[in-house]
Amino acid sequence: MSDIASRVKAIIVDKLGVDETEVTTEASFTNDLGADSLDTVELIMEFEKEFNIAIPDDQAENIGTVGDAVSYIEENAK
Amino acid sequence: MELKRVVVTGLGAITPLGNSIDELWKNLVEGVSGAAPITRFDATDFKTKFACEVKDYNSNDYFDRKEARKLDMFAQFALIAAEQAVQDSGIDHEDIDTDQVGVIWGAGIGGIQTFSDEIKGFAKNDFKPRFNPFFIPKMISDIAAGHISMKYGFRGPNFNTVSACASSTNAIGDAFNLIRLGKTKVFVTGGSEAAICEAGIGGFNSMQALSTRNDDPESASRPFDKGRDGFVMGEGGVSLILEEYEHAKARGAKIYCEVIGAGMTADAHHLTAPHPEGLGAKNVMISALSDYDTKPEEVDYINVHGTSTPRGDIAETLAIKEVFGEHAYNLNISSTKSMTGHLLGAAGAIESVACILAIRDGVVPPTINHFEDDPEIDQKLNMTYHKAQKRKVKVALSNTFGFGGHNASVIFKAI
What we know:
The structure holds 2 protein chains of 2 kinds.
Chain A: H1 3-16, H2 37-51, H3 57-60, H4 66-76
Chain B: E1 6-14, H1 21-30, E2 36-37, E3 50-51, H2 65-69, H3 73-89, E4 101-106, H4 112-124, H5 135-139, H6 143-152, E5 158-161, H7 167-180, E6 186-193, H8 198-206, E7 236-244, H9 245-250, E8 257-266, H10 279-290, E9 301-303, H11 310-324, E10 332-334, H12 337-340, H13 347-361, E11 363-364, E12 389-390, E13 395-402, E14 406-413
Parallel strand pairs in B: 4-5, 4-6, 9-10, 9-13
Antiparallel strand pairs in B: 1-7, 1-8, 2-3, 6-7, 8-14, 11-12, 13-14
Helix pairs in contact in B: 3-6, 7-13, 10-11
């Protein structure tokens, strides 16, 4: 697993209180990991902080799964 | 329209003197102090370095980590106390119409720790506006009532009362009145507060409201003592289930006592100082007594606001003498804040519990920490100093007064 993927996973485990094994690439924040809309906003903010990036709202809307987050960050992290 | 009778059918508590009603009551009767050095933050630079904290509190004992993260401690205390009270009363039964169960909670401040943390983060991050999405729903004082309703599906009236240290008495009073009017059958009511944090202690310190007896925390809360120098901050959550009498009877509920009065008035005098002659305090007791035409002579016990501040304690005793006349000398009076500290928005709820259990057990919890008489306080009044006193208590009244000049009293009667 890439460094980015493992850091993303750690944030999700921490914020959503889910088991590491549940955080698969395909897992959807809302459908599989029990996040509500506020949890999702918080996750995006945590990703921004961890990777020192800004994720615009219209991009954030497209980040629905663990894999979406990892690929977005891989493309945009400095 | 015939007014309904209202009874108490459940109690719950997480407090500086114990995390259950039984433990709280045992310690109140034994005259135990809940004061100790502050552990929640480093208080080295603060004028006051002690408080009455809930002991050994770990949110993980009550909530999963994800849930706890979204709850300020004042809301955690609310949920813990409410759960105990709901279980005690048995209203979480499938036969109960959840549309007829409301929640009126009292929190005077709300999530002050959450507010401070977010503002600290904002300042630390060069004032870039990055606030946590849970900031507001963690902080707002009404959220405790919201959480309790969501946990149980209680869909009756739902709100929070804010009147500083009178908040939970106002909550109990509102619940009482809505049941009396036939609007709702059952209320989860009470209050919670969690302000033992830098902003809470620092803020009250600046007002010179807190005792600074750092060399002897356990004796610092000394209502009516000549050496009193301010209140001791407490924290916690206390819940009462109020229920329409026939509803409680029909389901065979355990009934602690009846609620027979709730008064609410204002001093209209000063931000923080009480009216010097206790005018608002006098009026609020008269107002509470008037609900059921209770004669002053019928009252056995008054759990006073008695915060251990120099002026407040005097004003309240003057008001009691005005309302009760000669009978004032027959009353048992006590300030359980001498043991619990001042739970602010939860004060009315914890002190109501003291009244209710005094009625149940025929014992009045004491005012501890009396060392020297204050010549400005009538020494013929029985302040139940040092030790609990046995007394058959039929009617008990609890007073609470909040900064802003809010006064609220509630009266309980044996059934």
